[in-house]
Design a protein that fits this description.
The complex is a heterodimer of chains A (194) and B (236).
Chain A (H helix, E strand, L loop, with lengths): L17 H4 L16 E9 L9 E7 L25 E5 L5 E7 L4 E2 L5 E2 L2 E8 L6 E7 L9 H5 L3 H5 L2 E5 L5 E4 L2 E2 L9 E2 L1
Parallel strand pairs in A: 1-10, 1-11, 8-9
Antiparallel strand pairs in A: 1-4, 2-3, 2-7, 5-6, 7-8, 9-10
Chain B lengths: L36 E2 L4 H4 L28 E10 L9 E5 L25 E5 L5 E7 L4 E3 L5 E3 L2 E6 L8 E6 L10 H4 L4 H5 L4 E2 L10 E4 L2 E3 L11
Parallel strand pairs in B: 2-11, 2-12
Antiparallel strand pairs in B: 2-5, 3-4, 3-8, 6-7, 8-9, 10-11
Classes of the chains: A mainly beta (194), B mainly beta (236).
Chain lengths: 194, 236
Amino acid sequence: MADKLIPTPSQTVGPFFHLGMARPEWADLTALHPAGEKIQIEGRVIDGDGAAVPDAIIEVWQANAAGRYNHPEDRQEDKPIDPHFRGFGRVATDAEGRWRVVTIKPGPVPGRGNTLQAPHINVVLFARGLLIHLHTRIYFADEPANTTDPLLASIEDEAARRSLLARRAADADPALYQFDIVLQGEGETAFLDI
Amino acid sequence: MTSDPVPFARPRPGTQPPYRYPDYQSTAKRAPKRAPIRLEHTLSEVTGPTFADRWAGPDATDLTTQHKGAPLGERIIVEGRVLDEDGRPVAGTLIELWQCNAAGRYHHPVDQHDAPLDPNFTGAGQMVSGADGGYRFLTIKPGAYPWRNTPNAWRPAHIHLGVFGPGFATRLVTQMYFPGDPLLAYDPIFQSTADAAARERLISRYDPDLSEAEWALGYRFDLVLRGRAATPADPG
């Protein structure tokens, strides 16, 4: 332990992060036409006063439609790697705190101890006023596998559990899910200590 | 059946900033009130985007030649390595950099500080780390600037740096400061990390061997990411 270096502390991205981080094209993860069900996810980022957060930026990381991550540490040889799907995206909020990504619905991925995790998208959120980014996950409210997901099952508070579920909106093509991120207070999103 | 991934190490107490830090007033309405739910790392946390194949675009490491003329300010070289906490290099990962100009103004519509924009300076760069985890940018030293956290508050000169590392759990966005800056003592963003040795990690080191004669000052800054909580078992 004594030999270890201290990891660099996080510092806020501040209000001017667009200069180094804005990549509007990264909000569409389907540019290369990956396999799977194309979906849109949109939402707002809201602060403790219920006000829009216009200076937040969200990154998403997910498995492909078969449930495999495009990463060397995912060695699920029984599932294909999709060469057309990288699995990473980024989107900044607009003046009303809104964001939207276009992607494909991920497949289920293994959890710890030979469990299976329901399809989910991993999220980090940066903003002015956040000294260190927040982690959360987007699950899909209409997904039957949610009932056996280890993380969802571990959350006793029903409102907190529900905060991780993106709701499918009627009549949209591609399918549209809604997922608001509430930083603080009533309806606060369940954030994760990663 | 796949074996459980080796998790990344958790930060030691006080070595990362908190969400709520009253001296930095913008945390008041943005810090969650509930404690985050501890999640043991799965494949979802230990994997993350990879950049070695350069899909994120070409390296842009010289911020002084992005326009017709030379930007105003002290030319500096910022060089370092991306390492994990065990000192192992993190190769092939994306580093993103942004900063204000020498007068303390960002090339950004939200920045209305009464200081001149420099038509020869944008202040953004990126590169993928080398096999030894190394990176290097040529830029100009950013200026200090006022902000409205408290009356007459000034941010110390800093460069924003983002890096991904091997997994989504290693994601880091930080700020690099300069040695001897008197504003550091008054800056709540810098001071938000309780551990003094961890704060030192945020201050670059002037390196005369990195400076280039008649050309640029050299500052060294390593980016240290979380390492593994345990050494992965030898697959052999």
